[in-house]
Amino acid sequence: MNLVNEFVNVYGSAPQYSFFCPGRVNLIGEHIDYNGGLVMPCAIALGTHLLITPNDENIFRFKSLNFEEAIEIPVAPEYEKTGKAWYNYPLGVIDLFTRAGKKLSGLNMLFVGNVPIGSGLSSSAAIEVATAFALNTIFDIGYDKLDLVKYAQQVENKFIGVNCGIMDQFAVAFGEKDSALVLNCDTLAYEAVPCGLDDYVLAIINTNKQRTLADSKYNERFAECRSALKNLQTRLPIQHLCDLNANDLEHNLDLIENFTIAKRAKHVVNENERVHAAVKALSDGQLEAFGELMYASHDSLRNLYEVTGKELDCVIDFCKTQPHVVGARMTGAGFGGCAIALVKKAHFDDFEKKLTWHYTDMIGYAPSVYMSEIGNGVYQLNYSNTTEQECIR
Ligand code: ADP
Ligand code: MG
Q1: Predicted pLDDT at 213
Q2: Quick check: 61 and 374 in contact, CB under 8 A?
Q3: Annotated catalytic residue: which of 95, 168, 243, 313?
Q4: Whole-number pLDDT of residue 211
Q5: What is the CATH number of domain 196-371?
Q6: Which of 22, 38, 198, 17 shows the shortest CA–CA distance to 109?
Q7: Cβ–Cβ < 8 Å for 90, 127
Q8: Which of 100, 123, 243, 368 would bridge 238 by S-S if both were Cys, CB 3.0 to 4.6 A apart?
Q9: DSSP state of 284
Q10: Which atom of ligand 1 lies closest to the CA of 122?
Q11: What are residue 108's DSSP bridge partners?
């Protein structure tokens, strides 16, 4: 698909600006970004393009090749969310910039995503950060990348209504090619650690299970963690669950009366410790140790945090039987969506075929399996240098 031609078809002339923002996977450290923990995401090569030309009609035109509905919204002092419409995401960014006193004028926008939407690869963070990055560039606003990340998270929390942590927006903005970001979600300190996968590749397996309950269950887990924290704070001077180590939690578990909430806290604290071990394993080139931690992470998300489901478990159980897979786990919020696996490159095709057979047999429909590159975070495409390949994704 030639994106410039698509833009011309919709708006009648070539776009003046073009941006790309990737999706992300999280290698390990799940459901702890909103508990002040350490996470390890990376940006992937799939993502969302945003092509834009300013107009002098004071109208924001929203069109996406991934959705039928297009809309025109006049420039205004503030904006309202419309039900579950896709354009709430870029509109939320516009609303936040406007409320912060930034003067915006009309834009013709075209979004085109090749990251599976609603599958846990953060297409929502991609569209938010792409929009924030674009507005910042076009209107010469002068925010730095971290400001844009925080705004994008705020849009998801307040305008959309999902209490996500900062990991997704951070990863799709700051991602570095062939590196994992080790991000402290409390201090926002981070470092990029080269992945060094050697003869292994990162496989993304989309279970193709609709995540219909994902947002409400996500907010439920968020509330459960808040409740565990409140219980623990009656005796312990902590700000986040991840301020505790597993030993401290064990000695203070009597503070949490509710068994389910205690299980959630155990997952969070253990998972945070696993990430510390995973950083060391990856830095030392110990891919097998890293893979074991991925499996342990999945088991904890399955048994303690209860966010996996039979589709994700089917994928991970299969991976455990494969000699050429070193580790696998669900990635993202769970309740369906995607899993990741580290697979020996020479055996990837065989892995894809066997997994597809097995999964289809067990679940009744096929998964989608991608060999994924680890890419860069959000960037502007320069049309004067844009090759045909860059336009056509
Ligand atoms: P995920 O972030 O896991 O992909 P979400 O449910 O959080 O799933 O976000 C998906 C929503 O983001 C879509 O339903 C749509 O509203 C919006 N979105 C993402 N990518 C695009 C796109 N290319 N065009 C239009 N809307 C998009
Ligand atoms: Mg999302």
Answers
A1: 66
A2: no
A3: 168
A4: 76
A5: 3.30.70.890
A6: 17
A7: yes
A8: 243
A9: T
A10: 2
A11: 53, 61
Picking from 381, 341, 377, the residue whose alpha carbon sits closest to that of residue 192 is: 377
Task: State both tokens at 189.
Answer: 């300190």
Q: What is 189-228 written as a DSSP string?
A: -EEEEE---TTEEEEEEE-----TTHHHHHHHHHHHHHHH
**According to CATH, where is 3.30.230.10 located in the chain?**
3-192+375-388
Pocket lined around ligand 1, Cβ cut-off 6 Å: 48, 64, 66-67, 86, 89, 111, 113, 117-124, 127
Ligand 1 atom nearest 64 alpha carbon: 24
Active site residue 168: yes
Contact 157, 218 (CB under 8 A): no
Q: What's the token pair of residue 138?
A: 């076009």
Residues of the chain with CATH 3.30.70.890: 196-371
Band of residue 383 on the pLDDT scale cut at 50, 70, 90? low
Among candidate residues 97, 124, 112, 93, the one with its CA nearest the CA of residue 19:
112
Alpha-carbon distances of 155 from 231, 262, 306, rounded to whole Å: 29, 31, 27
State the binding site for ATP.
Answer: 64, 118-124
Alpha-carbon span 8 to 1, nearest angstrom? 13
Q: β-strands 107-113, 59-64: how paired?
A: parallel
Annotated binding site for Mg(2+): 124, 156
Quick one: which atom of ligand 1 is closest to the CA of 214? 6
Phi-psi region of 305 (alpha: psi -120 to 50; beta: other; left: phi over 0): alpha
Give the DSSP per-residue string, 65-106.
TT-S--EEEE--S-----TT-TTHHHHHHHHHHHHTT-----
Distance 288 CA to ligand 1 centre (A): 34
The whole-number average pLDDT for the span 71-82 is: 97
Element (H, E) at 276: helix 259-283
CA distances from 390 to 4, 19, 380 (A): 11, 11, 12
Residue range 3-192+375-388, CATH number: 3.30.230.10
Q: Which two tokens stand for residue 203?
A: 């496989």
pTM for the predicted model, two decimal places: 0.93
Q: Which residue type is seen at 343?
A: V
Helix or strand or coil: residue 278? Answer: helix
Q: What is the pLDDT of residue 256?
A: 98
Q: Is the pLDDT of residue 157 over 80?
A: yes
Is the Cβ–Cβ distance between 211 and 205 less than 8 Å? no
